[in-house]
Amino acid sequence: MLRRVTIDAYQVGLVFENRKLVDVVKEGTKWVFGNKQVMVYEKTVSFQPPYEINVLLQNEVLASMLEVIEVADNEIVLQFVNGNFKEVLTAGTYAFWKGVTNTYFSKIDFSKVEITEKIPMFLFESAKLRVYVRKFMVSSNDKALLFVNGVYVKELTAGTHYFWNNSTTVEVKTADMRQQQLEISGQELLTKDKAGLRINFYVRYQVIDISKALVDNKDFEKQLYVLMQLALRAFAGSLTLDELLSKKDTIASAILDEVTAKISDLGLAVSDAGIRDVILPGDMKEIMNQVLVAEKKAQANSIMRREETASTRSLLNTAKLMEENEMLWKLKEMEYVEKIADKIGEITISGGGNIIGQLKEIFVK
What we know:
- The protein is of the alpha+beta class and about 375 residues long.
- The chain is built from nine helices and 18 strands.
- The chain has a three-stranded antiparallel β-sheet with strand order 3-2-5, with no helix packed on it. Strands 8-7-10 form a three-stranded antiparallel β-sheet, with no helix packed on it. Strands 13-12-15 form a three-stranded antiparallel β-sheet, covered by helices on one side.
- Strand 12 and strand 13 form a beta hairpin.
- The radius of gyration is 52 Å and the shape is rod-shaped.
């Protein structure tokens, strides 16, 4: 049996006899004798072998026309065609026709974590490559630490970070480096004199050593909360209720002086702290109000007594002056007569009394 086979430009014909590759037909016309099978392949696409590729590559002509890429289990290969990213090749053997397009390959050790290859960052967001990378974002206000298999590796700066997405555990822990406020609310305390009360306390802090905060300590904010809680409880227990209320504005600084070293061990710095509220129970409020009323009454009584004493002393001084000066006595009598006259509208005389003579006696005596 004789057949004519025509191979067009950018095509290759493979002639098989009993599944064995016996000839490679390039561009042109060829006569094929016998019961042979001819398969025509386009050189513009990758070569998809009908049989085991390694067997076919034993043909030197075919082997010279193909670029074979071997990808191991721990590798991936990025295929670029005419400078553009096209495909990700996973474990296996691949064959591409030579001389048709400008194709190059970037082989990557996928078992490592760091991406050290010079790959444009925008490619990591492409649909084909996205599944092979891990993405972590660190904001401008944060710092971050990289942990690989639970081991601290390095500090990461602000920005977007990519790592290969393999079986290795990768974790990025971040900490906000801005000043923050921690509220310690409703702390029920007993004073030295066994008075029960509740205190709302606040602390303003900032992370200054991210390594201490995240590597040397776990849940540094919870530790800060407990640290301040215990310090507040201990300090309140050393004061009576009256002492605590009188020193309310200085308690915060005294507590901070006690715990500064421990706060530094957490990688933190505290800039400010203070008592927001001191809340007394109902019965204690009533007692405090009674004490306050009693104090105010005592103050009022003291003021009244001082005023009475001053008034009595003034009267005594006036009496002494009048005793020593007869004219002053007369002037005082005239002052009282004038006050009496201001309050009397008219005078009615009855009987035989000599009212005029009596008034004369008052003024000329």
